[in-house]
Design a protein that fits this description.
- The structure is a single chain.
- By secondary structure, this protein is mostly helical.
- It has one domain.
- The longest helix has 21 residues.
């Protein structure tokens, strides 16, 4: 299904945002657009169902496990070390 109207989405946009939908991390308008699309697109609805089952399985099997104590600090240090912040001025 290809989005043609301002409120319609193409399948690639829906699939890209399915985890935001599952995690309830999108705004209400986006949530409604995604839901309307999935109601009319069996392929996207099936993909959503697979991702929903995967999320449930991950929560059930890995929900109680925690990373080693020093891992968070090592990851934070590595992210800061590799992150380069740039500021660009766009001229129009």
């Amino acid at each position: 299904m290809t989005g043609e109207g301002p409120d319609e989405l193409d399948c690639s946009a829906v699939i890209a945002d399915v985890w935001l939908f599952l995690d309830d991390e999108c705004d209400q308008a986006t949530r409604e657009r995604l839901q309307r699309h999935m109601e009319t697109c069996p392929s996207c609805l099936a993909t959503y169902g697979i991702e929903e089952k995967l999320k449930y399985l991950l929560e059930r099997k890995c929900g109680g496990e925690h990373a080693p104590a020093g891992l968070r600090e090592r990851v934070s240090v590595e992210i800061r070390r590799r992150t380069v912040i740039t500021t660009e001025t766009w001229e129009q």
